[in-house]
Amino acid sequence: MSATLWLLLQEEGAAVAPSGLVATLVAGPQVNLSWVITGIVSESGYSIERRDTTAGASFAEIDTVGANIGVYEGDAGPFTAKHRYAWRIAVLGGPSDGEVSNEVALFGGTSMMRRIRRYGY
Predict the structure, then answer these.
(1) pLDDT tens digits for 74-100?
(2) I need a surface site. Which of 4, 17, 24, 120 has the fewest CB within 10 A?
(3) What is the per-residue pLDDT across 16-30, written as a single tens digit (0 to 9) for each?
């Protein structure tokens, strides 16, 4: 019985959050996100969440990607001077379901080179 329990615990693993989230703004404007998925097992995918920090909004899902994927490319939203959006990644399914990454934010401005600021990692 203890061997069976050990195998179940080994398969399930501990809850692990995505880490090392990085955002890059490219022409469009498009945002490219990448994150580390090491240690996350049995997930069904990842939720891409964004919030408008200028308006004080909460995070909301804007898209999803499949299991074992640590990149996303998508619309960055309407960037204007002093406007800021933040992104984070949430695990879908498996023992890490609901665990979230660090938060990254992109600030609007007058050039395409945006300042990137990281939170929580």
Answers:
(1) 987 777 777 788 999 999 999 999 999
(2) 4
(3) 999 999 999 887 678
Give the amino acid at 47.
S
pTM for the whole structure: 0.78
Give dist(CA 66, CA 38) in Å, integer.
Answer: 15
Residue 5 lies in a domain: no
Tell me, yes or no, whether 7 lies in a domain. no
- The CATH number of whichever domain residue 45 belongs to comes to 2.60.40.10
Please indicate, yes or no, if residue 92 is contained in any of the structural domains. yes
Q: How many Å apart are CA 64 and CA 112, to the nearest integer?
A: 26
Which domain does 104 fall in, by range? 14-119
The CA-based dihedral angle spanning residues 38, 90, 76, 34, taken in that order and rounded to the nearest 10 degrees = 0
